[in-house]
Amino acid sequence: MPNASRFDGDLATLLTVGAGRWDDLRVTPAEFIDACATWDVTGLVHERLDACQPVDWPLTVRETLASRARMHAARELVHRKETANVLKALVAHQIHPILFKGTALAYDVYGAPYLRPRSDTDLLIPRSHIEATRHVLEVLGYSSTVYCDGELLFCQFEFQKKDEFGIDHALDVHWKISTQSVFADLLTYEELDAQARSVPALGPHARCAGPLHALLLACLHPVMHHRNTHRLIWIYDVHLLASRLSEAELDQFGELATSKRVLAICAHVLATARARFGTFLPEPLTRRLNDAPDDEPSAVYLQQDRRWPHELSSNLRGLTRWRDRVRLLREVLLPAPAYMLRTYGHAPGTLGTLVLPVLYLHRGLRGGVNVLTGRK
């Protein structure tokens, strides 16, 4: 799509101040519709257009967006029922997860949950509840995906299932908020549990991260997991979360970001939200953000053009014990045999055991080539 960065700004303007003249966009209807899907704002844009009823916009744009929004709303009803059933089953086994990221925001911040697309539902649980959670999900018909394990490499696991309507459901279960060691223990389950909010639409026991923690996580998400890539919907999350807080709460947020040593990241992301959506930031918070120290360990994640070697290096530096660093390197270079066999399509057994050395060698060579050629 031509001049994508300019159109990104046009979409942000549409979401905040409403629709301007269609001809000013200088794009075709197909390009506009595709852009809404690419940036996950189809429902939001439809909502804005429906509210202001611009007379010069092509009918095909409005009808297509309306049709897709209805489809998203219908699928959301199915996801809502499934998520509520999962949470009910977990609570029945004395497992009390905390929703965070996409699904939590969809039901806590957005006017309607279908307005916040996402590919999975993220849950945070205590480390001690991992096996019990796996068991509950398997009983509910979920199966684990091929996922590289490791206590330090991936502090999470994914389960998926396809329901009777052919709709896929994916659950990303975390026992730490991040796979990056700099951020992994930044917010613990106990901290989120103490400030968690109820989510009545997902059942009487459904809970999500509280407003300050949710904003902190939204600021960190694109930096710690996506190499400082800013999707429009992620910045809109930040805008909505910040806009709901009072000046006193925003001041508390500044104190939280400072104490967690992620103020520079929060300053960067909030500045992006203000530039895109005009997010209001009170003067005391603005001064604090402008004075963010540049020596925070997490600030290195703001550097441009970060790649896998930079992530690994930061991960190693974020660990304080040498034995943990050695363990992380082992998990990266020599993942569990079960993972290797599943990845390469081999069943466990004698033959699989015999070919394991070849699989490890192939994986190492392929990874090395990807690193050297800049593809990783």
What report would you give on this structure?
This protein has four domains: 4-57, no CATH class; 73-302, Beta Polymerase, domain 2, CATH 3.30.460.40; 306-330, no CATH class; 334-376. 57% of the residues lie in helices and 7% in strands. It contains 17 helices and seven strands. The protein has helices spanning 4-17, 29-38, 42-52, 59-92, 102-108, 130-139, 181-184, 189-195, 211-226, 232-243, 247-259, 263-277, 283-290, 308-318, 322-333, 337-343, 350-372, and strands at 98-100, 121-124, 143-144, 156-162, 168-174, 197-198, 207-208. Strand 6 (197-198) and strand 7 form a beta hairpin. The longest helix has 34 residues, at 59-92. The model has no long low-confidence stretch (mean pLDDT 89).
Describe the structure concisely for a colleague.
The chain is of the alpha+beta class and 376 residues long. 57% of the residues lie in helices and 7% in strands.
The coarse silhouette is globular
Helical content band: 55-70%
Just name the CATH architecture of the largest domain.
2-Layer Sandwich
Helix tally equals 17
From the alpha carbons, calculate the radius of gyration and give it in angstroms.
Answer: 22 Å
Q: In what order do the strands lie side by side in the largest sheet? A: 1-2-5-4-3
CATH topology heading of the largest domain: Beta Polymerase, domain 2
Any low-confidence stretches, pLDDT <50, length ≥5?
none
Number of domains: 4
Q: Largest sheet, if any?
A: 5 strands, mixed
